[in-house]
Design a protein that fits this description.
Layout (H helix, E strand, L loop, with lengths): L14 H16 L14 H11 L11 E6 L2 H22 L2 H7 L10 H4 L2 E8 L1 E4 L2 E4 L3 H18 L3 E2 L8 H6 L6 E10 L15 H4 L5
Antiparallel strand pairs: 1-2, 2-6, 3-4, 5-6
The protein binds 3-iodo-tyrosine.
């Protein structure tokens, strides 16, 4: 059955408004940094809910919305997750990651220790839904990695927009997250993001982003 189609309009902007808004938005997102040191200051749950609703506006393959965002503030669960993440990370930093990989990470100061999982008031664990069950039948979702990657980008932007910080933490392998959070078999852990305020003395590495001419090729 085709969907009913409805008219779509957006508020039309003048050229000046477009220029101003696109510049302001870029400058705002350019202030985002991945932060590894968190304060335990609480956040209004409604703010977090708005952030997750924003991620849920992402486009997805055949509009299947193949995502579940698990919002964890329970201290016991956060401790369990930290403990299990550190077990994997200790193995990764100890032997699983190549020497070159560790060399590439060294300037960023990452280690197997993940205190932010317990300290940040919330962690969001994003799960991708590889299939759904419809009338008892398994139906695969489409472009799941692309869809969920886009949703996570929007999530990260929404966190920054709300004056909060996050970090894309990728413990590997991540299957412990599905076990601890008791997720169904159609879901696979994709990303873990602490959400909070930066610690008072938080620092970030002095790194710079590619300039436009380094990241964009123009074909006229
Ligand atoms: N998954 C590890 C290691 C790590 C890997 C990359 I590539 C990074 O940019 C940062 C960390 C971790 O989350 O620490």
């Amino acid at each position: 059955m085709p969907h009913k189609f409805i008219p779509y309009t957006q508020k039309e902007l003048t050229n000046e408004e477009q220029l101003e808004k696109s510049k302001t938005f870029y400058e705002q997102l350019d202030e985002r940094r991945s932060v590894r040191e968190y304060s335990d200051r609480d956040i209004d749950i409604e703010v977090i809910e708005n952030i997750i609703k924003t991620a849920g506006t992402a486009p997805s393959g055949a509009h299947k919305q193949p995502w579940t965002f698990c919002l964890v503030s329970n201290p016991e669960l956060k401790s369990k997750i930290r403990e299990a993440a550190e077990v994997e990370e200790k193995k990764s930093y100890g032997s699983r990651m190549s020497e070159r990989w560790k060399e590439d990470l060294a300037p960023l100061g990452t280690t197997w220790e993940k205190p932010f999982i317990e300290i940040a008031p919330y962690i969001i664990v994003v799960f991708k839904r590889v299939h759904e069950t419809v009338d008892g039948e398994k139906r695969n979702n489409y472009y799941v990695n692309e869809s969920i990657g886009i949703a996570c980008g929007m999530l990260i932007s929404a966190i920054h927009n709300a004056g909060l910080v996050t970090l894309t933490h990728t413990p590997s392998p991540m299957n412990f997250l599905g076990k601890i959070l008791n997720r169904p078999e159609n879901e696979r852990a994709y990303l873990l993001l602490p959400v909070g305020h930066p610690a008072k003395n938080a620092e970030v590495p002095d790194i710079h982003r590619k300039k436009l001419n380094e990241l964009c090729v123009v074909y006229k």
